[in-house]
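<instruction>
Derive structure tokens from the sequence
<data>
Labelled lines for chain and fold
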Amino acid sequence: MVYFDLSLEYVLFGCFCVSVPLYIFVLVNLALVPKSDAALGSSFFRIVLSTGIADVLTAIQTYAYFKFRFWNVAFDFYSTIHPVLKYDLIISYATTFVQSFGNLLLGFNRYTAMVMPTRHAVIWSSERVRIYLIAKWLIACVIVIPGIFLELSDLTFNRVPDDGNATVNGVATATLQLLMVLQGFNKWYRAQAVAVDAANYIHPYFLLSLSAALRNRCFPCISKEKRATIAPIEVQPISTVEQPSIINHYRWSSELHLN
């Protein structure tokens, strides 16, 4: 018998319901930004958009594949679609690799901007960024191809009664599945659950807090651009006494140039 405390899971699911729609909203706004935009159309935000898609997919697949089954949501449904869940697991690992490659590109992008500013525009030209992003997704897909041929046995849970006690059934024949199960029930599960969820959808909060251009794009009514104001300058009139001297000065200058 294993005891499951789902109180933290419910809190994390509440954060999921708020953060993922916000993340999707931010990504849609980034996707609609024209390339001519100097701030949001830069290579950095193009990488953010690509990596953000992987973040959202990973967050949704984490709940769809593992956590909903863990809570006994749609118990009969999950017990009949194991082949589908196998491929969903493989896709989730592919999106996880995309996240890692995307974070690597973001770090290198900021490095070149600070250390190699003269070559930054060449390294992150529009054509090269497109190649980087395509390669990121292709490499992740190639890495998980062997997982398609793995024989993953079904892993089911008995229904969890009100006291939180349940029996874990099933035998994991693949190391990948076994590691996932062991990590799910070790003593560090709480910290791991928070870390995994935060890694998937904490990015929009950082982006909105650090980028004024993105805030103005997503929430134009809340984040109003500050308009520059020019203080009026008081013009001092030229006295009649000083006027002849100024006229004589310009007359002397013109005569000098003519001569």
Observations:
- The first helix runs from residue 7 to 31.
- DSSP finds eleven helices and four strands in the chain.
